[in-house]
Write a structure and sequence with these properties.
Blueprint lengths: L2 H8 L11 H14 L12 H8 L3 H13 L3 E4 L3 E4 L15 H25 L2 H17 L7 H14 L3 H10 L6 H7 L7 H19 L3 H25 L1
Antiparallel strand pairs: 1-2
């Protein structure tokens, strides 16, 4: 590593706090490094492996952070090369980082306004490439559906695929910016650690996802909208019960 890279590395914090969202912390840390000139416009960020080692986080956390910064216009990624700082380094909307279950319910309410429309457009506009991605993401979600720790990222990727199939880039950008914490279960173990996992809950969520998937594949515009509405309203009910329990 050259001297410039060493100087950058010296300015980087070594470990993140476990009590807070790791991806949100990493976003804040990288923002600070960019704001203070450690990484200037045009500079390449350290690789995924280097960031994982420096901050002692998983690859998923690194990718969520990079995705959020890319959606915010602060980074641009080049396939097989890495992530580079853009000229758009001003402060913007922060990624979603709920502090309690009420914030989770607010996000579900917001998602209803966005994702019902996205599902409807996806059913109307999806093409062959979208169908391939949707199938891949749905299969991945199905394989992890009953694993409370592993299904969050596949769930998020499934919803991203729907946003992408809408062929409206703003649906995709807002969901990429918010990050995987848009999936309520991603924070349940932190915000309500005493609530036991419920297998029937996970099974119900998977059935709802299948209804959304089938409607989009079939080109059923009203069915896709209704299925997404049902899914998010049921999520409101489920997490509303958790709010009452804590």
């Amino acid at each position: 590593m050259n001297a410039g890279a060493n100087n950058k590395e010296q300015g980087m914090t070594a470990k993140l706090e476990p009590r807070k969202s790791l991806s949100a912390q990493l976003v804040a840390e990288l923002r600070e490094q960019i704001a203070n000139g450690t990484f200037a416009p045009g500079d390449k960020l350290p690789s995924e492996n280097e960031l994982m080692q420096t901050y002692e986080v998983s690859r998923t956390v690194v990718r969520e952070a990079i995705s959020g910064l890319r959606a915010d216009g602060i980074l641009i990624t080049r396939q097989g090369v890495g992530a580079f700082v853009t000229n758009q380094t001003g402060k913007r909307l922060e990624p979603f980082d709920p502090l309690d279950l009420k914030a989770v319910l607010h996000m579900i309410e917001f998602r209803k306004a966005i994702e019902m429309e996205a599902a409807e457009f996806a059913a109307a506009r999806r093409d062959d490439n979208d169908l391939k991605e949707l199938k891949s993401r749905f299969d991945e979600l199905t394989a992890n559906a009953l694993d409370a720790k592993e299904f969050v990222l596949p769930d998020y990727n499934f919803h991203l695929a729907i946003a992408r199939a809408s062929h409206n880039p703003y649906f995709l950008q807002i969901e990429e910016h918010i990050g995987a914490q848009i999936i309520p279960h991603s924070k349940l173990h932190v915000l309500a650690p005493d609530i036991p996992e419920d297998l029937s809950f996970l099974k119900a969520v998977q059935v709802e996802h299948e209804h959304i998937y089938r409607a989009i594949v079939d080109g059923d515009v009203s069915g896709a909208r209704a299925a997404m509405r049902t899914h998010l309203e049921h999520s409101q009910e489920r997490y509303g019960r958790y709010v009452s329990a804590v």
